Amino acid sequence: MLCSWRVKLKLLLATVTLAILLSWLYLFVGSLEYGRLLLLPPCLGEQPSRDMEREALASQVRRVEEENQQLRLQLSQVQADGSDGSPQWGASTEDGDPPRGERSNHTACPKQRTVHKCELLHVAIVCAGHNASRDVVTLVKSILFHRKNPLHFHLITDSVAHQILQTLFQSWMVPSVHVSFYNAEDLKHPLPLPPFFPNSPEVSWIPNKHYSGIYGLMKLMLTKALPSNLSKVIVLDTDITFATDIAELWAIFGKFSDKQVIGLVENQSDWYLGNLWKNHKPWPALGRGFNTGVILLLLDRLRRLGWEQMWRLTAERELMSMLSTSLADQDIFNAVIKQDPALVYRLPCFWNVQLSDHTRSEQCYTEVSDLKVIHWNSPKKLRVKNKHVEFFRNLYLTFLEYDGNLLRRELFGCASLPSPPSDQLQQALEELDEDDPCYDFRRQHLTEHRVHLFFLQYEFPALTDPTDVTLVAQLSMDRLQMLEAICKHWAGPISLALYMSDAEAQQFLRYAQASEVLSARRNVAYHIVYKEGQFYPINLLRNVALANTQTPYVFLTDIDFLPMYGLYDYLRNSIQQLELLHRKAALIVPAFETLHYRLTFPKSKAELLSMLDMGSLYTFRYHVWPKGHAPTDYAKWRTATVPYRVAWQPDFEPYVVVRQDCPKYDQRFVGFGWNKVSHIMELDAQEYELLVLPNAFMIHMPHAPSFDISKFRLSAGYRGCLQTLREEFHQDLSRKYGAAALKYLTAERSL
């Protein structure tokens, strides 16, 4: 607001000055005309003098008018850019750094450099692994929250981050956001190379002590990795949080001189001064050096300068004495700048407020409005010591837990980047009839949920066992307490889809990291499906968990069941003995239940039968839904010693072990009802054998009823829509499998 009032004051003064000059000119010209009538003609030598005076005065008037117009333009820009009442600060001096000794960013009203609202801004990020992928999401949220421009993210990733982030952005479907991926492996080395191979343009030959490993060197390769027609890009570390519109940073490209190619903020620690400890020897740097958490790169100029050869020759020379980098790419960037300082444009320090221990970051701001970019560049991250760390932490947590669905907002006035999936979804939504009594069910079926795969560290199996089996289930926040118990009962791989809000996902993260049982497991894959809509998308969740398994077989269960101890090994042996590789079969694990929250879990089939006879266990849902599991034939199971075959019956919904490429669950069924029944029906339509395992069992643990089952019981409209969906499913099944599927409709009608 201070800048706005200054501009207004200047405009007022200019207007008054212009009025005075115009009045003076009018009187002056008038007096000359009047003098010509009363006096003799002037001397010939005086005429040029008067003409010059009039011309000088007219020139002054034109100059004041131009200044007036310029001030009007500036005022309109301030009103447009700062409509929220907050000042839009830029660089306080032309070279980007505030004068020494001046801590305030308010030393002068900055010259406004605007970016057209539809200009595409390019952002590059290097990301590898599960943890960095989570950090990228928070960074992107902070950018999207403030942005007013279309964005193109260029992500240099390993295979893990690629899978996670590609799925996330595809399901997020943010308008006017495009994402390109680049394989980090291609930037390490094209072929197997010796440990030190300086003639390679890649980075694998550079010894690096930094915890980021080889990925911390990837930013050196952006001129090669990014498209050759990309002229400039903002490069960001994953531990960055934006507190302003990134277009303000993009505008600074316009301040670069002809020789400047890299925009950086000065390092705010004493690292490059070499006085942190005895015999501390950092890489060469200009003064305090520069931090590479935020970089502005003019790629076209760097390519013309021969950037790849420039940094490589510098690195080779310094490594002869330094032996390795300590701060990854930052050391090499600084060594190059030390050699040629004209390359760097000094960004104001509020564009990279570095929250590591013992930094001068507090000199970058005096008010909250000064903050632009916060950089959590300490290994301690949120636990770093800083005078205002609580404020910074709350700002970060705001974006960490912010509902990403709210960022799916259009940029009005700009042509959106083409997005076929989004266009198809919009068309399908427009075709829905809002007067349809089942509109909400159909709308939920079309909802595109954001999906964050492998939310926590997961170790993919190096070698696949041909009989290996993954437990597949889904859950929401109210079933979180079941995880530890299931992990104690099942030693094999697990794939879970968790239906949560952004805030709940962070609660789960803290819970899992604090749990000794969960944190010790690396073969449990957690896939977050973010909440949206009014129904629980149970079959979507099952499909997400199923699609991201890594084993040939899957055990399809629910989170509120505890498998018997040793079931993992028993299933693998059964798969081998029954030769499932050569037959299409579904192995049924009989289901039981207890009404007691505290249960001494049976260690064998004999113990379970004893508890069944004593009434402490029951066959599952025998008292409310016997049709669901009666075809398992529990009477036969009591004495069975070998697997036996059972026939499909209406409403049969057992828990089964099948091949990983089994049919998907039908996602039209949301909330409660017919979600498993429809799946078993399709297995039977594809002629799967249904085989009951004689020495396997699972027990359902009691819990409060879900919200969806309450709606089913209380709402006749809910039950009516479920019946409509069932009929539509039968029709689709008949079209898909022909006459063989007619038996299902006949069986349904006979009930």
From TrEMBL:
Q: What does the UniProt entry say about where the protein is found?
A: Golgi apparatus membrane
Reaction(s) catalysed (UniProt annotation): 3-O-[beta-D-GlcA-(1->3)-beta-D-Xyl-(1->4)-Rib-ol-P-Rib-ol-P-3-beta-D-GalNAc-(1->3)-beta-D-GlcNAc-(1->4)-(O-6-P-alpha-D-Man)]-Thr-[protein] + UDP-alpha-D-xylose = 3-O-[alpha-D-Xyl-(1->3)-beta-D-GlcA-(1->4)-beta-D-Xyl-(1->4)-Rib-ol-P-Rib-ol-P-3-beta-D-GalNAc-(1->3)-beta-D-GlcNAc-(1->4)-(O-6-P-alpha-D-Man)]-Thr-[protein] + UDP + H(+); 3-O-{(1->[3)-alpha-D-Xyl-(1->3)-beta-D-GlcA-(1->](n)-4)-beta-D-Xyl-(1->4)-Rib-ol-P-Rib-ol-P-3-beta-D-GalNAc-(1->3)-beta-D-GlcNAc-(1->4)-O-6-P-alpha-D-Man}-L-Thr-[protein] + UDP-alpha-D-glucuronate = 3-O-{beta-D-GlcA-(1->[3)-alpha-D-Xyl-(1->3)-beta-D-GlcA-(1->](n)-4)-beta-D-Xyl-(1->4)-Rib-ol-P-Rib-ol-P-3-beta-D-GalNAc-(1->3)-beta-D-GlcNAc-(1->4)-O-6-P-alpha-D-Man}-L-Thr-[protein] + UDP + H(+); 3-O-{beta-D-GlcA-(1->[3)-alpha-D-Xyl-(1->3)-beta-D-GlcA-(1->](n)-4)-beta-D-Xyl-(1->4)-Rib-ol-P-Rib-ol-P-3-beta-D-GalNAc-(1->3)-beta-D-GlcNAc-(1->4)-O-6-P-alpha-D-Man}-L-Thr-[protein] + UDP-alpha-D-xylose = 3-O-{(1->[3)-alpha-D-Xyl-(1->3)-beta-D-GlcA-(1->](n+1)-4)-beta-D-Xyl-(1->4)-Rib-ol-P-Rib-ol-P-3-beta-D-GalNAc-(1->3)-beta-D-GlcNAc-(1->4)-O-6-P-alpha-D-Man}-L-Thr-[protein] + UDP + H(+)
GO process terms (BP): protein O-linked glycosylation via mannose
Task: Report the superkingdom from the record.
Answer: Eukaryota
What molecular function does GO assign, one term?
metal ion binding
InterPro entries according to UniProt = Glyco_trans_8, Nucleotide-diphossugar_trans, Xyl/GlcA_transferase
Gene Ontology CC annotations of this record: Golgi membrane
User: What's the protein here called?
Assistant: LARG2 glucuronyltransferase
Record the organism.
Dromaius novaehollandiae
